[in-house]
Every structure is written in C-alpha cells, then in structure tokens.
Specification:
This protein is mainly alpha-helical and 378 residues long. Helix content is 58%, strand content 3%. The protein folds into three domains: 52 residues, no CATH class; 173 residues, Lysozyme (Orthogonal Bundle), CATH 1.10.530.10; 81 residues.
Length: 378
C-alpha cells in the first residue's frame, strides 16, 4: 500500500506542477513539491532495480507497482497510456503517429498480417514473461521488428536471437554465450534478459518510444537528441536521432497497429486517419473556409514535415488536409488548405520543405531490408 501512495503522490505532483505553470506559487510549496517528487522518483527507481536484480519472481505487489509506473511510458503514443481494443485506433493514437508510419504500413502491412496468424504461441510466451516484470505487453512487438520472431536470427554485426542481443550485453543480463552454448536463441531465457534490459532503459528514459530508439541505437544517441532538442518528447526530438533509430520506432508503432487491429493494405484503407474507411472531405465551417487559402501542389511532400516547418499541430493540419499523403504518393495533385499566414510561410519555403521531404523519403528507402535483421544491436 505504501508503494501505491508514493506513486499517487508522484503523479499528483506532476499534474500539480503542470497546472501551476505561469502562476505565482509560494516558494515553500514549490520546494515541498520538488522534495516529494525526488522521493517518489527514488522509490520508483528502487522498485525497478529490485525487479531487475531479482533472481526469483518478484512479489506480486512489487510487480503491480512497477506496472503502474511503466504503463505511463506510452503517454506520447496513446492518449490513455495504453491501447483499448474496444475503441477505434484513430481515437486513441497520437495524431503524429498516423502519418509517421503510413509508408511502412504500405510496404510491410501484408507480411505483418501473415505473421499475425502464426505468431500467437510466441506472443503468449512473451506476454507471460513481460507481465512477470510489470512491463506493458505492447513491447512484444519489438521482437517482431528485431527478428521476425526467429530464434536463430543472426545479424551481420553478430546480434542473435529473437531479441538480437550482442554477446557482451547478453552476458551482462545473465545469458550464457560461448563456443558451445548460445542462450540468446533460447526464447524463454532471452525474453527474461530482454525484459530486464528494457526495464533498465525505462528507469532512465521513462518513455517507451525513447526506450525503443535506445534499444536500436544506444542510449547515448537518445540523450544527445534530448540535449539538442531540449525535450524528452519523441515527436519533438525524433529528427535529432539517427535515421535508423527513428525508423525503428516507426516500425514498432506500425507493427502494433497491424497486430492489434488486423488492418493491412486494402485498397480502401486510409493510412492518414487509420479508420479503414474511404477518405472523407474535411468538415469546415464557413468561417474556416473563408479564412483559409488553397494551393494546388504535387510532388513528394509529407504532411508531418510540412506541419513541423509551419509549426502547425499535425492533427489540425490533417483536419484541414485529409488524404494529402495518399494523394501525393499516388502521383496526384492536391489542394493544400492553410490559413493565410501559414500559406505565405509555405510558399516562401516550399522548395526547402520539399527538399526535406525528399531527403526523409530517401532515408527511409535506403534503410536496408530486413534480410539480416536488426542493424545495430545490443
């Protein structure tokens, strides 16, 4: 019970601090909140350390507590921290994720759909182990993008097994790797090691999208992106990450979508709204129509890059311009709709924006196909 009181205090403190921004607050209250936050953080880290270092299955109370902590790590992906299968996917996922993963869905949706029918046995095993460490079950999809769930997967760098451990990291998390035995290929043992490693990354990063980026490219690259961007929000710092690590997160989100919803690359599937329905025209008021301008464009523009450069929230941009990515990817023209000031900014910078869109597309295309599995491994 004491652990849950500490957790509640920590969450309350965060919410209180956020709601108090811009307000004049008594210094004593601020210091008290900061002290409480530090104590709560230390208690959380101590609980995580205990689970990581445990040689036996940790106590149920401890696991439940860690689970309550780790579920908030998906706050930048899902509005309610986790996916609810009874609700439409598009109503839960962060709008940034919708256009972010559409190219990967179009290229790999069918193969992921086929894998879904043959992977349940592996998912059940992984789910059971992840739950023993208080980890979100969504993390099982990391093994899909690492190795296609193949126990003998071997990368050209020497990473091996379903979780693509390098030898030194595998040994650090208790796996035996020598000339006679390689426990990286043992599903049960390697998944236990992966759970510990993921939990240790989460202890420092506190965000699962950042953990996935670190799993691929190392924590150093993630911390460098945090420093350069001044943010711990993945959607803000993503362009400061190596392209491969950014794409790893994209693959994870797209794989989660396919595996959870079953939607693939059917002709009527709309990758912008993720609702599986034909594109609908934007519902705009008369005032919105009168206060916006339309310009016909063509080429390899990307809605996420446009929105970033124009400093428009991606959900608002998609509301004004539904289907932009799909239309342009098909070689059609599109009438982009923007407010007057944003249209002026777009016209003044459209060639620079187009160049950035093309460079991102080239980076995605040049990412090696997964024939040797993960590129940089643990």
């Amino acid at each position: 019970m004491k652990l849950f009181i500490i957790l509640f205090t920590f969450i309350f403190t965060i919410n209180y601090s956020a709601s108090s921004e811009g307000c004049i607050t008594d210094d004593t209250v601020i210091q008290s909140l900061q002290d409480t936050t530090i104590k709560a953080r230390d208690s959380i880290n101590a609980a995580i350390d205990e689970v990581i270092k445990s040689t036996t299955v940790p106590k149920a109370e401890k696991i439940q507590y860690v689970n309550q902590v780790t579920k908030y790590g998906f706050k930048s992906l899902f509005k309610n921290y986790s996916y609810n299968s009874s609700m439409p996917y598009s109503s839960q996922v962060n709008p940034y994720a919708e256009t972010y993963m559409q190219d990967y869905l179009q290229a790999h949706g069918s193969s992921l759909q086929k894998m879904k029918g043959t992977s349940q046995m592996y998912f059940n095993l992984i789910d059971n182990i992840l739950s023993q460490y208080g980890l979100p079950k969504e993390l099982k999809y990391l093994a899909v993008i690492e190795s296609d769930l193949k126990s003998q997967a071997l990368s050209w760098k020497g990473a091996r097994g379903p979780w693509q451990f390098m030898p030194y990291t595998a040994k650090g998390y208790g796996l035996l790797v020598n000339g006679y035995v390689d426990e990286r290929t043992d599903y049960y043992k390697s998944t236990n090691a992966a759970a510990r490693y993921l939990l240790s990354l989460y202890k420092d990063l506190k965000d699962w999208l950042l953990v996935i980026a670190a799993y691929n490219g190392g924590s150093g690259n993630v911390y460098s992106a945090i420093r350069k961007s001044g943010s711990r929000n993945f959607w803000t710092l993503q362009y400061y990450l190596p392209t491969e690590s950014r794409n790893h997160v994209k693959k994870f989100i797209a794989t989660h979508y396919i595996m959870e919803t079953g939607n693939s690359d059917s002709p009527n599937f709309n990758y912008t709204t993720l609702d599986g329905k034909p594109e609908a025209a934007p519902k705009l008021s008369e005032d919105e129509i009168n206060s916006t301008e339309v310009l016909t464009i063509s080429g390899k523009y990307n809605s996420l890059v446009i929105a970033k450069n124009l400093e428009i929230d991606i959900s608002e941009f998609n509301r004004l311009n539904p289907g932009l990515d799909g239309a342009l990817a098909s070689g059609n023209n599109y009438g982009i709709r923007l407010t007057s000031d944003k249209m002026d900014l777009f016209v003044a910078n459209k060639y620079a924006i187009l160049n950035e869109c093309v460079q991102q597309l080239l980076n995605d295309v040049n990412t090696p196909a997964k024939t040797t599995y993960s590129k940089r491994k643990l």
